[in-house]
Design goal:
alpha+beta, 5 strands, five-stranded mixed beta sheet
Amino acid sequence: MKISYSKTFEKKFSTYQKKLQIKIFEAISIIPNGDIKRMTGNDIPPIYRLRISKYRVLFHMNEEEIKILKV
């Protein structure tokens, strides 16, 4: 499954400390496992969130690709 990143994610992610960056990448690499929930609303495609300690990673997911939106 392909993982892509939005410009918003890349810009914000670069400001985090190295330890946190590694922790986020490790959690993203095991999607769809982990503390994932679908966000409520009428979003098409649906938006999911992955919780990593006090941070939330928002993403879209389908059969071919995971698009990371923001932290």
